[in-house]
Design goal:
The protein has 3 domains: 68 residues, no CATH class; 56 residues, Orthogonal Bundle (Muramoyl-pentapeptide Carboxypeptidase, domain 1), CATH 1.10.101; 200 residues, Aminopeptidase (3-Layer(aba) Sandwich), CATH 3.40.630.40. It is built from 11 helices and 8 strands. Bound molecules: zinc ion (ZN).
């Protein structure tokens, strides 16, 4: 190994004399990713961290690598794919994009807008030409072991509060710090008009699945509860997020109304809060994404001043009311496992797109 490094250093010195160092990176370990992301460090990992200590001085003064010069000739069997294409090859590409977190949608064999976005995202993060069309260089990298998994939530702490609990605690607590207005600590929530399934169960199922998805996208997840048998007031829940210093906190709820025809999803945000603007922005992304994935009716964003869980929380926080358990159709959806999966993806995309569009 020593002889090899010495020989490489010698080659580097000779080449530098002729001014042709540029495309050579002699210490790059074999098989390591040559396409480290160019996006902000927040969204990417460096591919060079482990090697830096053994790099001699002369190497560290090399100019930044030029990725285009390192692209190897693509596999000749690859065929360019573009929007509008259909079939097996599109499906294969989508499955790979999905496996690596680049595709936010179904692998259905049709190259539509979501697939185009996924390819664009992949190209952007890899310093490739950003066209949204899968040219052979894009495909070559995507199928190779050099392709990186997309981890847009890496380094972020996301708080999830599945609302309510099996047995409500009807003692009182102040609705806000310093307030004399008292509110019930925590109720047991509503229940399905047809399914009879309680809200606290639905929101925990969604919360636990959402946790898995968020972690797969790089997040650290802080749950207020992972079982139904707890005794946690709304102040307790807010304090969990404060102590963990979450970057984004979401309260999961289902709605109930005396009017059985009411249906749809809404997102609640605090009326007074230090991070109110951020809460609104997060709510906008969340609602758009949730409705896009689930096709549920968008009932908009509503401000609330009486939520203990908002008022005690010092972190950015929102509350999704995923549907009305008092509405027959919504109830059957909210308690259906396939629809629950859709809701989780809708929430995940909403959170990812908020951070993708924040700096
Ligand atoms: Zn609720």
């Amino acid at each position: 190994m020593k002889r090899r490094i010495a020989a490489l250093v010698f080659i580097v010195m000779v080449l530098s004399l002729f001014g042709c160092l540029h495309p050579i990176d002699p210490l790059k370990p074999e098989g390591e990713d040559t396409y480290s992301s160019e996006s902000s460090s927040h969204f990417s990992e460096s591919s060079f961290s482990e090697q830096s200590s053994s790099v001699p001085e002369v190497i560290s003064s090399l100019p930044p690598e030029d990725k285009s010069s390192e692209i190897t000739p693509p596999d000749p069997s690859l065929k360019e794919l573009k929007k509008g294409d259909k079939g097996e090859e599109v499906l294969r590409m989508q499955e790979r994009l999905k496996e690596m977190n680049w595709l936010f949608g179904e692998a259905d064999g049709e190259y539509g807008t979501r697939t185009e976005e996924a390819v664009f995202r992949f190209q952007k993060h890899n310093g490739l030409e950003e066209t949204g069309s899968a040219d052979v260089y894009t495909l070559d990298l995507l199928y190779s072991d050099r392709a990186e998994k997309y981890l847009p939530l890496k380094g972020l702490k996301i708080g999830i509060d599945p609302g309510h609990q099996k047995k409500g605690n009807y003692e009182k607590e102040p609705v806000a710090p310093g307030s004399e207005t008292m509110k019930t600590k925590v109720s047991s929530g509503t229940a399905g008009v047809v399914s009879r399934v309680p809200e606290y169960k639905v929101v925990l199922i969604v919360g636990l699945r959402l946790k898995e998805l968020l972690e797969n996208f790089g997040a650290t997840v802080i749950m207020t509860r992972e079982v139904n048998e707890v005794d946690l007031s709304n102040i307790d829940r807010a304090k969990i997020f404060n102590e963990a210093e979450t970057d984004y906190a979401i309260r999961l709820h289902c709605n109930g109304s005396e009017d059985p025809t009411m249906y749809g999803v809404s997102v609640l945000i605090p009326k007074t809060h230090a991070m109110k603007d951020e809460c609104r922005k997060a709510a906008e992304y969340l609602l758009a994404s949730f409705c896009d994935v689930t096709k549920e009716r968008n009932r908009g964003i509503k401000e609330r001043r009486e939520q203990t869980g908002f008022n005690w929380c010092e972190r950015m926080i929102i509350n999704i009311e995923m549907g009305y358990m008092s509405n027959e159709e919504d109830d059957l959806k909210l308690t259906d496992s396939e629809y629950q999966e859709k809701m989780c993806w809708g929430i995940l995309y909403g959170i990812v797109s908020y951070f993708e569009n924040s700096n």
